[in-house]
Amino acid sequence: MLFAAAGGNVSSAAVSDSVPAAPAPAQHPAEHLYATGWGLTLKTDGTGFYNELMKFVLTEAGFGPDYRVMPYNRAVSSLKADEDGCLYPAYTPIMHPNGLDEQLEIGLEASEPLLRVVTHLFAQPGQKPLARLEDLKGKLIGHPMGSRIADVLAPYGARYMASLDETAKAKLLLTGRVDYISASLPDAAFVFQALGEELPPYNPDLLLVSATIGVVCRPSVQGRAFLAAISTTLSRLRENGRLAEFFEGRGISVEMHLPADRPLEGIAVKSQR
């Protein structure tokens, strides 16, 4: 089991002398940073792994820990209406993150990554994981609302059912309403653990996408200053080991999820080339 329950304090460590501390931008980002609430790991009440991670980084960057968590569509609309707006979490480097570039028709710039996520198809408990994509014909896949999985897997003849949050999506699988769900790690491990279930079977060789997650901002002076502060802070936290400590304290595999200089990988990436 790669993951344990979220929680616990992050132990302090000496800041590396070779990487300067991030300067605190003059304006607090809370008015302009929009997070897309998605359930257990990113709740609108400020709890969950992704909220813990962002609050940790914001505090280390010299900001307060507050920002706005709201439903996905509202967050995207807020970003579109705000010339200094930023969004979290989003793919970095930007690979049309959830269609944002297409929806907004504006340029977006990205921070250094906070973590790496890997997305797979998970089978029902007790069933064998998917051996090959050709076996998806006629199968029903649960996926997040707004996901592009139907486009990515279009050649394989599957059917699809959208879900509004990650816990509801997991329950679709556990109750047998779908044959598979698309889900990312580390997120899925937290969700199934909260439901008192083991992580369902999946084929690690059938990788939908492996990508890094960070913050994207509109290219204003303030947006770029905020990205610079976040990126400098993340470089420092990686070098002095505190980002690894944060992951380890929550039972997350550092080897799998600590950001690294690896390219975007997986079936979803190949489908866009």
Topology:
Layout: E1 33-37, H1 49-60, E2 68-71, H2 72-81, E3 86-92, H3 100-104, E4 109-110, E5 115-123, E6 140-144, H4 149-152, E7 159-163, H5 166-174, E8 180-185, H6 187-194, E9 209-217, H7 221-239, H8 242-249, H9 254-257, H10 267-271
Parallel strand pairs: 1-2, 1-3, 6-7, 6-8
Antiparallel strand pairs: 3-9, 4-9, 5-8, 5-9
Question: How would you describe the overall organization of this protein?
Answer:
It is a single chain. With 273 residues, the chain is of the alpha/beta class. The protein folds into 2 domains: 29-116 and 210-271, D-Maltodextrin-Binding Protein, domain 2, CATH 3.40.190.10; 118-208, D-Maltodextrin-Binding Protein, domain 2. Helices cover 31% and strands 19% of the residues. It has helices at residues 49-60, 72-81, 100-104, 149-152, 166-174, 187-194, 221-239, 242-249, 254-257, 267-271; strands spanning 33-37, 68-71, 86-92, 109-110, 115-123, 140-144, 159-163, 180-185, 209-217. Strands 1, 2, 3, 4, 5, 6, 7, 8 and 9 form a 9-stranded mixed β-sheet that branches. Mean pLDDT is 82; it is low at 1-26.
